[in-house]
Structure formats: structure tokens, C-alpha cells
Amino acid sequence: MLEISNLTHTYGSGPSAHHAIDGLSLSVAEGELLCIVGPSGCGKSTLLRSIAGLIKPTGGQIAIGGRTVTKTPDDLAVVFQDYSRSLFPWMTVADNVAMPLRRRTMDKARRRAAAEEALESVGLAGAGKKYPFQLSGGMQQRVSIARALAYRPTLMLMDEPFGSVDAQTREDLEDLVLQVRGHHTMTIVLITHDIDESVYVGDRVVVLSKAPAHVVGDLKVDLPAP
Ligand code: ADP
Ligand code: ADP
């Protein structure tokens, strides 16, 4: 469902040019949970922003469902590492989760019900009336994940989604992703610098070189379901 062919990304030009991605090719099948792992600064976020249509590749092609990405696709949700900057502080948790659903043709009551259901699925039933600042970091990240899930994306991109939480919360959130994935059919691309996490969460792990990033390893993981 996702095809990346010979992608390059260069920031700047001339002597100050910085090559972040160089000749990266990758296909992701529908329903796959692919983890992309690589050293810090190797170009992972650049790759994810390119897939999301947030930056334009300087070379090569990205296609989702056979269509070249030129802008952010409608059926895409992104979870960033920095939950504190992704939730709107002036909105309640429920309103944060329901907000993107305005893009769907859903009336207010259905949006609210979908938000509640998504919050429940991340273990935050009853937290809808709170504001983000009233929740711990791990809980705020659950809200970000709930928001992505409520949208029912075809493709979910996660950029170091557990990078800013403590070790226990991290394990809980890893299990949460595995759990929600059992309930919804979607393709997930999750970026991490943690090889253990990638093997635990992913059904396939793609390893990137240091910058400029290209694929140096691609392995199937076959762990029993938790
Ligand atoms: P990662 O996510 O793997 O840590 P990034 O994709 O954020 O890596 O960055 C890859 C490289 O590109 C890094 O060397 C980084 O400094 C550089 N880079 C990232 N964003 C920009 C930018 N907007 N302008 C110039 N260089 C950038
Ligand atoms: P459909 O998917 O055919 O619209 P459903 O009854 O499965 O019918 O869902 C109704 C709406 O509620 C969906 O559009 C979806 O956005 C939302 N929804 C359902 N289940 C969830 C869930 N677990 N998390 C978030 N939103 C959900």
C-alpha cells in the first residue's frame, strides 16, 4: 500500500547541502506494522515527514495506494513524539480526539461517541472532560494515539511515539499499539531508534544506515501474539 522508490532528500544546496536520505526504496504491505529503526540523526523523521506529504522529496517517489503523494493524504494520521505540542491545550481531551473527525461526514453526536470509544480503547474512559495539562505525559500520549485511532486512518505514521515517556509507560503503550492493531485494520509505520522496541512491536523491521539514510537491513519478526 506504500511504495517508496529511490527516495532522496537533501536539505539546502551548494556547499551547505545536507543529504538526509539517499536512494531509499521500501514497500509496505496493507495491514503491516513496519518498524523503521536507525541511529539518531539518520533521516528517520525526514522519511516520515516525506511519507506524510509534509515535505517534498528532492528525488524519487512515494506512492500510497498507487497514488503519488503530493500533499497530506486524507486517510493518514500521524502520532509525533512530542505530545505536549500536538494536543490543543484549550480543548478538553474529548474535543481534541473528536476534532479531526470534522473532516469526516459525521455529525456532532457521532463524533463524540467515536471519541469516547477511542478514549476507552486506550484506557482513558472517563478522562474526556479533562484538559491535557491535567494528565501525565504518558496519558497525553495515549490521547494522541486515541485521536489517531478515532480517525480510522488507512495509514498511521508514528514518529518515536514512546520517546518521551518513562520505561513502564513505554511498555504499556507498546502493548496498547499491539492491542488496538488487533481491532482495526490499518497499516502502521513506526519509527524508533530502539531496536528492542522495533522487534517487540513490529512484524517487520527495516534498518536504516546512518545519514544519508538508505535501507541496510530488512527482517520479518515472528513473535507469538501477546
Ligand atoms: P532522525 O529522525 O533519524 O533523527 P532527521 O530526519 O531528523 O533524523 O534528520 C536527518 C538529518 O537531517 C540530520 O543530520 C538533521 O540535522 C538534518 N535535518 C533535519 N531537518 C533539517 C532541516 N530542516 N534543515 C537542515 N537539516 C535538517
Ligand atoms: P462505520 O465504520 O461503518 O462507520 P462503525 O459503527 O464501525 O461504522 O463506526 C462508526 C463510527 O465510529 C466510525 O466512523 C468511526 O469513526 C467511529 N469509531 C468506531 N469505532 C471506533 C473506535 N474503536 N475508535 C475510534 N472511533 C471509532
Automatic annotation (TrEMBL):
<keyword id="KW-0547">Nucleotide-binding</keyword>
<dbReference type="InterPro" id="IPR027417">
    <property type="entry name" value="P-loop_NTPase"/>
</dbReference>
<dbReference type="GO" id="GO:0016887">
    <property type="term" value="F:ATP hydrolysis activity"/>
</dbReference>
<dbReference type="InterPro" id="IPR050166">
    <property type="entry name" value="ABC_transporter_ATP-bind"/>
</dbReference>
<keyword id="KW-0067">ATP-binding</keyword>
<feature type="domain" description="ABC transporter">
    <location>
        <begin position="2"/>
        <end position="226"/>
    </location>
</feature>
<keyword id="KW-0813">Transport</keyword>
<dbReference type="Pfam" id="PF00005">
    <property type="entry name" value="ABC_tran"/>
</dbReference>
<dbReference type="GO" id="GO:0005524">
    <property type="term" value="F:ATP binding"/>
</dbReference>
<dbReference type="InterPro" id="IPR017871">
    <property type="entry name" value="ABC_transporter-like_CS"/>
</dbReference>
<dbReference type="InterPro" id="IPR003593">
    <property type="entry name" value="AAA+_ATPase"/>
</dbReference>
<dbReference type="InterPro" id="IPR003439">
    <property type="entry name" value="ABC_transporter-like_ATP-bd"/>
</dbReference>
<protein>
    <submittedName>
        <fullName>NitT/TauT family transport system ATP-binding protein</fullName>
    </submittedName>
</protein>
